[in-house]
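Before relying on records like the one below, remember that each one covers exactly one chain. Contacts with other chains, cofactors or solvent are not represented anywhere in the record.
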Amino acid sequence: MSAHAGAIVVGGGPAGCAAAIGLARAGAPVTLLERERGPSAKVCGEFLSVEACEEARALGVDPEELGAAPIDRVRVTWRGTTVESRLPFRAQSLSRAAFDEALLVAAERAGARVERGARAVKFEEGRVSVRSGDALEERAASAIVLATGKADLAGVRREAPRARDALGFKMHLELEDRELAQLGTAVELTLLGGGYAGMQRIEGKRVAFAAVVDRAAFARFGSWRGLVAALRSTDARLARRLGNARELWAKPLAVSGVPYGFVYRDDAVADTWCYRVGDQLAVIPSFTGDGIAIALVSGSSAAAAIVRGEGAARFHAAMRRRLAKPMFVSGALSRAIASPAGRAAVVWPASVIPAIFSQVAAHTRIAR
């Protein structure tokens, strides 16, 4: 048993880093466990809303200084109809490898002890078993912050999602110069039966291309190649974008069992000693682009709660109240686009009044 009894943050993504930075700045001893030894790509989002950018800068990381691409509009396509609308804010787009690494460096600079290549394998109240290489050590913790993203861990599992779960895929691409210029500062979303795909620029000349589909839809497509082929046949513009694009990874990143719409409740699992942040707290549909903001805000808020001596149950309840509106609006929209009639009901009115998308974007934000 380690004599160190400070806070332990499990996971070095945006939520975990925000918590570690907040605790370290308050003078609290904190150890952050990150399973990867160096910068790595993540399947999760690379869209930084204005709230996410403000929170990142408050933590000591400026996305623009890291070369983030500006995003100020959204294009949505379904069955040949494309609607474009300006966003009610100026966002940024940055690869998770660059963003997460900058946050980890900021956590170390703030005074947190960052352990790379360290994996939490078991949780009990006030204790964490940590594997680093061949060594396994049990450590005491004054508080535990769970920031492991969408993954479930033994001993701290989430309740089963109410809705059918989804599969997520992501690939980084290089587009032809003409297609890159036409993509510009927009996020492009393409709707199809059983899911949707999104494309946006990140730093340099790279593009992030992601898709989310339910299991039944993916079973029809059969593979990543089948999914890409279906998307190309669905939208002529997307077919042009992908026509001569070069995939930068040997295979896409993938995640299964994504519980969109999940919001953690303490009465679901008896682990009220554990502060959940990011996707362990709530999983908002990815098309809202607010996942990173929720991660950063929840991580900073957990740190503040721990410093105040506020229990995990009270923290979770406060975060549920803050997330109620964006989760409700995004959930309603997600259910709508799951059916052809719903997709028509969303896209066709917006083709007449494009500002509808701006209003949706404004109502799916978490306040800092």
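The radius of gyration is 20 Å.
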